[in-house]
Structure formats: structure tokens, C-alpha cells
């Protein structure tokens, strides 16, 4: 990759990360023209796109449900994300902004009970107060509950089949007592009928006759003497790690309002972390507004708050009450900032008056200069 192309990709990534709310596709189309190489653009800009989607709390559809892409949703050491409400993980394509391949996720029962109760109350609050709102509550990593060691399945010992030993058929012989007269009579009878004694070779052949009803054993005596070889059992697959308890919960939600026909867009993102062990409830709101009618103005601000928890085991309702108080404080701060724009910030942008405290009459500037030049010429 040439250095010029690398510089273009770096600039494209910077522009993409500064995309106003809801306008990332427009920015991507513009930087695509700047780079001029689609293959290099897709591979080179992917890290910036992943960062943008994560920071902006992108909302995606997963089997009919709204799920958030956040830093807390990323599985540790994997490229998959978590949907805590559906108790599942999923793959996410940052280029196509599409979720796929949902898989079940095992969770700690007690932790999930607390998490789901908070999520239910938070979802109702977001639905009532934020346009196009979406929310999620995550059980964050808690150092008070160490990560369980991976469980390895116990290998099952393979039983060796015992060699089958054929038992020779037992022939029962009935001894009959024969008198000498009977023996002589039998021998005479055999000679008369032309019977001949079977040669010993024929007797041996009968003994070696093969019984076709039994399988043919092609093994030699040497092979039979060798110990039987057994196929080693496959290594046991590691069992999935046990679910990890937690008493730290992250409350994430986002509200968006896009009105491109009137040349403005806006997004409100909030993150709150409730730590039951420390007894703290820390919040942060990130507000972005873009207004571009006959100009181009962006507002980007971050508001923070910290509140103590009412108890070591707060209820979901008490947490949302603290959240409402913080959000009201954030809204009041923004209102004060807007009211001061015309009196302070915009006035500071105006041209300052001269020392005479009177406006300059620019129409007479030429006359002033002409008289000065004429006066100077007369002196000469």
C-alpha cells in the first residue's frame, strides 16, 4: 500500500469518526470518492467503522428485537456481541450493519434476576421520554466475583473388548458293550457289503473341513499372539465456562431524532453504572446536534453526574429515580447553555467597535483617504 493511499485512508477514518448523527452513510459516500479504491477503503476503514458503531450505540434488528452495539456488549476475547435480554450472543457485520448467527448464552440466575428487573423499568422510562429510544442493561465484570476456571469434561475410559474364545463342541459318546460274537458278526457283514475302511488321510480331511456358516478368520497365529491395539479416545472438549455473578450493572440507552428535510439531526446517548459494592451510581450523557441550513453548526457535549445508592441492594425503581434526576439536571444545563448563546457566545463572534465606540462609515472611507492624500500632496 502506497504512503499516499495510507494518508487518504487515515483522513477518511477521521472524517468518518466525526460523522454527525444519522449521516455516516453520506460521509462514507464522500470519502469513497477521496480514496478512489473500494477494496482498500473497505479493509482500511473497517476499524474506524467498528469504533463509530460502538461509540454511537448503533441499534440493529435481531430476529425482530432491537439490540444495541456498545462497548459493554462485546464479548471478552471474541468478535461477538451479547443480547442480555434475549440471553444470546450474535455476530455483527460493521460494514453491512447486520446482526446474524444468534447463539444461546448461559447466565447466572441471581444476577439475571436483578438485571432483568432493572431493564424492564429502564425500557419503560426510555420509551416515554426519548424519540426512537432503545435500551439495554448489562452485567459488567465484577472483581469481587473472580472468573471461574474453565471446566474440563472428565474423559470416559474406553473399555477394551475381550477376545472371543471359541469353545469346541462337546461330543457325547455312549459306550456300548459288544460281545465277541457280535463283533465277529459285524466284521463279516461289512466284508459282505463291500465296505472298506476309510484311510487316515480322509479322516484328517474331515477334521479340517471349513464351516462356511462362521466368518473366516484370516489372522495368523503370530497376529493372535500380539496384544490387541485400541484406538485412543479423543481429547475431551472443554466445557463452557460457568456464568460469572456480578453486582455491577451498566445501563445504556439512546434516543435519536433525524430531520434532514429541515436540515438538522440529533442524538442523545447515556451510560449509567450502578456499583452495589461501592454504593455509587455514575452517569454520563453524550449529546450531538447538527444544524446545516445555510451554514454548518454542530453541538457536541458531555455531561456527567455521580450519586450515592440508597442502599447496598437498591431496587430497580430507586435506580431509575436517580437516573431521572440526573437526566433532568443534564437537560437544565443544556437549556442554560442555549439561552446564553445569544448573549455571550454569539456576541463574542461579532466585530468589536473601534475606540470611538461608533461604527465605521465604510462609504466615507474613500473620501477620508482621498482628503488625506490631497492634504499630504499639498504639504509636499
UniProtKB/TrEMBL annotation:
Membrane-spanning segments: none
A GO CC annotation given for this chain: actin cortical patch
GO molecular function: actin filament binding
Biased composition (Pro residues): 233-244
Keyword Isomerase: no
Domain of life: Eukaryota
One GO term (biological process): actin cytoskeleton organization
Basic and acidic residues compositional bias, start-end: 176-192, 211-227
Compositional bias ranges of the Acidic residues kind: 164-175, 193-210
Keywords for the protein's UniProt record, in alphabetical order: Actin capping, Actin-binding
Segments of this protein annotated with the region Disordered: 141-244
UniProt-recorded name of the protein: F-actin-capping protein subunit alpha
Species for this entry: Leucosporidium creatinivorum
Amino acid at each position: 500500500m502506497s504512503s499516499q493511499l495510507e494518508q487518504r485512508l487515515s483522513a477518511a477514518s477521521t472524517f468518518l469518526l466525526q460523522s454527525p448523527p444519522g449521516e455516516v452513510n453520506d460521509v462514507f459516500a464522500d470519502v469513497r470518492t477521496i480514496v478512489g479504491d473500494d477494496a482498500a477503503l473497505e479493509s482500511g476503514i473497517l476499524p474506524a467503522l467498528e469504533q463509530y458503531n460502538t461509540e454511537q450505540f448503533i441499534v440493529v434488528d435481531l430476529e425482530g428485537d432491537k439490540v444495541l452495539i456498545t462497548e459493554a456488549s462485546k464479548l471478552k476475547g471474541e468478535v461477538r456481541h451479547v443480547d442480555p435480554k434475549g440471553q444470546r450472543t450474535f455476530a455483527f457485520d460493521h460494514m453491512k450493519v447486520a446482526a446474524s448467527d444468534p447463539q444461546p448464552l448461559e447466565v447466572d440466575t441471581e444476577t439475571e434476576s436483578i438485571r432483568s428487573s432493572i431493564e424492564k423499568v429502564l425500557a419503560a422510562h426510555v420509551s416515554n421520554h426519548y424519540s426512537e429510544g432503545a435500551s439495554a442493561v448489562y452485567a459488567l465484570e465484577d472483581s469481587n466475583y473472580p472468573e471461574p476456571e474453565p471446566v474440563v469434561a472428565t474423559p470416559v475410559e474406553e473399555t477394551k473388548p475381550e477376545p472371543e474364545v471359541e469353545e469346541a463342541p462337546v461330543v457325547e459318546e455312549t459306550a456300548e458293550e459288544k460281545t465277541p460274537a457280535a463283533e465277529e458278526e459285524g466284521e463279516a457283514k461289512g466284508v459282505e457289503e463291500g465296505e472298506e475302511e476309510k484311510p487316515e488321510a480322509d479322516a484328517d480331511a474331515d477334521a479340517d473341513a471349513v464351516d462356511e456358516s462362521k466368518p473366516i478368520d484370516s489372522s495368523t497365529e503370530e497376529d493372535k499372539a500380539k496384544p490387541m491395539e485400541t484406538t485412543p479416545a479423543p481429547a475431551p472438549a472443554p466445557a463452557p465456562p460457568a456464568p460469572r455473578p456480578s453486582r455491577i450493572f451498566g445501563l445504556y440507552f439512546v434516543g435519536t431524532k433525524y430531520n434532514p428535510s429541515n436540515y438538522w439531526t440529533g442524538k442523545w446517548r447515556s451510560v449509567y453504572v450502578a456499583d452495589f459494592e461501592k454504593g455509587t451510581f455514575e452517569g454520563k450523557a453524550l449529546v450531538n446536534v447538527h444544524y446545516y441550513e445555510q451554514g454548518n453548526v454542530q453541538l457536541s457535549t458531555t455531561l456527567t453526574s455521580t450519586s450515592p445508592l440508597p442502599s447496598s441492594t437498591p431496587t430497580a425503581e430507586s435506580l431509575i429515580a436517580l437516573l431521572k434526576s440526573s437526566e433532568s439536571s443534564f437537560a437544565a444545563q443544556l437549556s442554560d447553555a442555549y439561552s446564553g448563546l445569544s448573549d455571550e457566545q454569539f456576541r463574542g463572534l461579532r466585530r468589536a467597535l473601534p475606540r470611538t465606540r461608533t461604527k465605521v462609515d465604510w462609504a466615507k472611507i474613500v473620501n477620508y483617504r482621498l482628503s488625506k492624500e490631497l492634504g499630504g500632496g499639498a504639504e509636499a
